[in-house]
């Protein structure tokens, strides 16, 4: 079937994602991608000069997807109105949704980490660095204002991400059937746990302090 240039490019990306997620970058050849797509290698190189360029296109496509921009916009809005719980929930929901909606890409990124693939690692750092910086500045500001407990923002962020990622990897990448939580239950539970640890205790009234 003859496809337009845009549709052919999209087909090649989808086929490559599937193979890279199962065999890694090093274990996948352009010949295999061409065979799976039902085209010749020449067709691949017409759209992507190298295998590395195809791999980069896959990562760029995922990191620049509309849903990524959407959740970051929601995050900024929550930060602007100082909604600490929504700020935490946005991150947890984004992690769970990414694994649920695109588990092949998450497997691809796991392979990239195991292979030490510089293309994937470099692109991942580019997108996560700005998000981490947003959270770091927000947590520090809210701590200074007395609304969040004093703690290292990076440690708090690691704890929040860790809960969500462990759950999502087990359910959508490793296919663990014993997951007893729904995504909604996981989202609410993890948010509640995080806020219990992050929220500063309410100041005691003077009368309560005198009684003590």
Walk me through what this model shows.
There is one protein chain. This protein has helices at residues 5-23, 30-37, 41-47, 51-63, 66-80, 84-101, 103-115, 118-144, 153-173, 183-198, 206-211. It is mainly α and 212 residues long. The termini are far apart. The model has no long low-confidence stretch (mean pLDDT 90).
Q: How do the SSEs run, as a string of H and E?
A: HHHHHHHHHHH
Largest sheet, described in full?
Answer: none
- Total domain count: 2
Write down the oligomeric state.
single chain
The portion of residues forming beta strands comes to under 5%
N-end to C-end Cα span: 81 Å
Silhouette: elongated
Which class of the largest domain in CATH terms? Mainly Alpha
Poorly predicted runs are: none
CATH superfamily of the largest domain: Tetracycline Repressor, domain 2
pLDDT averaged residue by residue: 90
Query: CATH architecture of the largest domain, please?
Result: Orthogonal Bundle
Counting DSSP H or I runs of 4 or more residues, the number of helices is 11
Helical content stands at over 70%
Structure at a glance:
The chain has helices spanning 5-23, 30-37, 41-47, 51-63, 66-80, 84-101, 103-115, 118-144, 153-173, 183-198, 206-211. The protein is mostly helical and 212 residues long. It folds into 2 domains: 5-61, Homeodomain-like (Arc Repressor Mutant, subunit A, Orthogonal Bundle), CATH 1.10.10.60; 65-198, Tetracycline Repressor, domain 2, CATH 1.10.357.
